[in-house]
Design a protein that fits this description.
By secondary structure, the protein is of the alpha+beta class. It is built from three helices and six strands; from the N terminus they run αββββααββ. β1 and β2 form a beta hairpin. The chain starts with a helix and ends with a strand.
Length: 115
Amino acid sequence: MNRLMRLTIPVLAVCVLALPIDASAAGKTKLLPNATVKSVTPTMLTVTADGKDTSLTVDAKTNVIGKGLGTKARAKGGKATITELLGVGDRVSVTYQESGTTMHASKVELMAKAK
């Protein structure tokens, strides 16, 4: 009986660790890697990626990064809004989380300004 327990417990542990993790879990970080800004407001960012429009909420916690954006933000006293940093036609990469039916952009990386 003792030998059986010594063998069973490690086998069970390996089986539990090998279970796949649910990728659709709420709050999981997702990425839109090559999107184009369709519209931007102080609370909403709409992008087009792969021919599909996606609307994401934005707020003061949304991190907007990219070449030249730090200088632009400093010129505004470090408090530049997303509408001052991004424009229609800009190419971006968006990291977001889903919560129910809402998608919140946590990071928006400017890849190229619109021409």
